Amino acid sequence: xxxxxxxxxxxxxxxxxxxxxxxxxxxxxxxxxxxxxxxxxxxxxxxxxxxxxxxxxxxxxxxxxxxxxxxxxxxxxxxxxxxxxxxxxxxxxxxxxxxxxxxxxxxxxxxxxxxxxxxxxxxxxxxxxxxxxxxxxxxxxxxxxxxxxxxxxxxxxxxxxxxxxxxxxxxxxxxxxxxxxxxxxxxxxxxxxxxxxxxxxxxxxxxxxxxxxxxxxxxxxxxxxxxxxxxxxxxxxxxxxxxxxxxxxxxxxxxxxxxxxxxxxxxxxxxxxxxxxxxxxxxxxxxxxxxxxxxxxxxxxxxxxxxxxxxxxxxxxxxxxxxxxxxxxxxxxxxxxxxxxxxxxxxxxxxxxxxxxxxxxxxxxxxxxxxxxxxxxxxxxxxxxxxxxxxxxxxxxxxxxxxxxxxxxxxxxxxxxxxxxxxxxxxxxxxxxxxxxxxxxxxxxxxxxxxxxxxxxxxxxxxxxxxxxxxxxxxxxxxxxxxxxxxxxxxxxxxxxxxxxxxxxxxxxxxxxxxxxxxxxxxxxxxxxxxxxxxxxxxxxxxxxxxxxxxx
Length: 552
Hints:
The chain is an alpha/beta fold. It has 2 domains: 8-289, TIM Barrel; 403-541, Double Stranded RNA Binding Domain, CATH 3.30.160.270. Helices cover 37% and strands 18% of the residues. The strands form 3 sheets. It has an 8-stranded parallel β-barrel with strand order 1-2-3-4-5-6-7-8, surrounded by 8 helices. A 3-stranded antiparallel sheet has the order 9-10-11. The longest helix has 20 residues, at 512-531. The relative contact order is 0.10. Mean pLDDT is 87; it is low at 486-496 and 535-552.
């Protein structure tokens, strides 16, 4: 039965979100994000594109097994649908089913473009051929899985009458969800809402399926378009945390959730999202992808609940609703201090991490506790934000091919900045190198480069304070670019050309130079792991089929 008063949330952070340049995630990071999304209450997790690579297939399979099934002793708790994306061909659908079949509630999501420009220039197919392919591939997917989602790619620029025909055939073939993507963020809210309303009115059999919306933010209209689609009858919203995704990104989960909740009298719709976990999951995704959240980002930005103007401050002191339409506690921002310090024990530390959603095994707990004690010696008060940064920096990092063992920096107005770095290498051997630079970070990175001899181009460097005060933890994010050529699986078999990939890294420490070194090493370790230079070839970058089209 379709509940007309309930909006499903289909989270594609692990698929479309990971297509953001530099946002490549390790399998361990994907699994942790999937667990967090399940706790958040999302209805569907699109865990990846299984045909893209062996690693993506294994990652989706692991999520299907570990997140897509009830935990022991919690069999009565709801678990999310685990979805895998597939192009409209048999091999992709085979791979998707291979990965998601282990979930209690699996879904195959297949797509084919329907706009004139895509059919002519990309697919090189006639409209009649597109209709036949949709019928065949939805039928093929349905033979594997009862829950099949179909997307007409670039629906926002497709002919509505043709869409009604294609979607009707998809329903006849067994599709249970019809996703309508504004793939290139082209439509306005009035146009997109009208498109959904037309589909609801003219598509045969639409009353028996869920209509979904998937909007991109190229014109800054993704949230507005998604809400317009929901008002027109769509009951599934496809979103990502922090709005990450292809080009300008996707619709933000947090914006749609809080719009529906804050303006509930307008929409009169319910969701299954636990809004108090939004901020924590947002920070986790930002840390793992290396993509900072802009300060003025709605809901989760650093300034979202900050008030500086005197008039605003006066109003807030008199009544918070004068300038706040929602309370920070609603999205998990806790203004209270966490009383953990250098006298705190391992048990209290473990309990607080569990309350924050981090279930660490004994080895991980031991590593994190050592860092916690080091931090407690430097800071009088440790907050939840400090703990989040500490765990992200210590536990959820790539394989440490090189790890920081020592750093000494000299800088100031007298003389050149110098840095001496000591790293432990892949054979547990120790390397030291000294370098000078234009500043302490530049000198540190040059010293690291002197040991880790890997050509790369630093694209982005950003540093933020995790908490307030002069003793705040500094959190650094970097993105670097490197040529990976054939080893990355993205080389053209015809030309043999080498192509560049981006790698993100993050680090946290009360010393921002140490945090900077950790972040740079995190990104370099991802690069080295992808290159296959150390140990077995990492499938993270291996593509077993032609590079997949990037769908809406």
